[in-house]
């Protein structure tokens, strides 16, 4: 589904990612893990079209994305939920969710996707009239993910969904994400500092450090590699 070939990303001429090659299959759940500054978030931004200085090739379902504008990538089903939640603070929870359903392919399925949100994050459905700014950090993160799901994503990219959350809120978020496959095929890329949670959710993983891809494989195998875990992942 997603193919990255010799991808290099620069900010003001300085490399953030260098010569990365990887592939994500349809329906796969894969984690990008490793220390901060590894280039994980930059890769997601390149796929969604929000970095300007890059070279290499990014293909989605056989289409080269080089000349595809960010809004057209959304129409293709590429949904990127960046770190920091970024809910519309002055809009209600319901309005936030409906904003996520503006993709043309999603409009006929609003009721169906609202049912998915109800199953994954039932707490949100009790807050539909509340403004986004009144929600806790964990609730805002659930809303950001739910808004992305309202777009009927083909590829859902999540950047640090547990950042700044309490252990209980993070557990609620990961529990909801773990049930995604119950509601149809969604390809998931998860950038996450909490490697154990990422490995539990995702079948495969890629380890990044200092702008390079240093290891790839099944999550269980990477977690069992003591040397790799000690150097790049902390305690797994």
From TrEMBL:
InterPro entries with a match to the protein in the record: AAA+_ATPase, ABC_transporter-like_ATP-bd, ABC_transporter-like_CS, BCAA_Transport_ATP-bd_LivF, P-loop_NTPase
Keywords: Amino-acid transport, ATP-binding, Nucleotide-binding, Transport
Gene Ontology terms: biological process: L-amino acid transport
CDD domains reported in the protein's UniProt record: ABC_TM1139_LivF_branched (cd03224)
Pfam families assigned to the protein according to its UniProt record, in alphabetical order: ABC_tran
Superkingdom of origin organism: Bacteria
Positions of the ABC transporter domain: 2-235
Matching Gene3D superfamilies: P-loop containing nucleotide triphosphate hydrolases
An example Gene Ontology molecular-function term: ATP binding
Family the entry assigns: Belongs to the ABC transporter superfamily.
Name of the protein: ABC transporter ATP-binding protein
């Amino acid at each position: 589904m997603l193919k990255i070939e010799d991808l290099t990303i620069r900010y003001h001429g300085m490399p953030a990612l260098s010569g990365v090659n990887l592939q994500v299959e349809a329906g796969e759940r894969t984690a990008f893990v490793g220390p901060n500054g590894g280039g994980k978030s930059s890769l997601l931004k390149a796929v969604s079209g929000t970095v300007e200085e890059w070279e290499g090739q990014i293909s989605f379902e056989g289409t080269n994305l080089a000349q595809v504008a960010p809004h057209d990538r959304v129409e293709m089903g590429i949904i990127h939920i960046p770190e920091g939640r970024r809910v519309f603070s002055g809009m209600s929870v319901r309005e936030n969710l409906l904003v996520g359903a503006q993709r043309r392919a999603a409009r006929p399925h609003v009721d169906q996707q609202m049912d998915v949100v109800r199953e994954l994050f039932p707490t949100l459905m009790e807050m539909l009239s509340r403004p986004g700014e009144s929600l806790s950090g964990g609730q805002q993160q659930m809303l950001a993910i739910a808004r992305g799901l309202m777009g009927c994503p083909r590829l859902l990219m999540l950047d640090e969904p547990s950042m700044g959350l309490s252990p209980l809120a993070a557990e609620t978020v990961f529990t909801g994400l773990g049930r995604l496959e119950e509601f149809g095929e969604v390809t998931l890329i998860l950038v996450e500092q909490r490697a154990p949670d990422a490995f539990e959710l995702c079948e495969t993983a890629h380890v990044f450090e200092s702008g390079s891809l240093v290891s790839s494989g099944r999550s269980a195998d990477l977690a069992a590699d003591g040397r790799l875990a000690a150097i790049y992942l902390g305690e797994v």
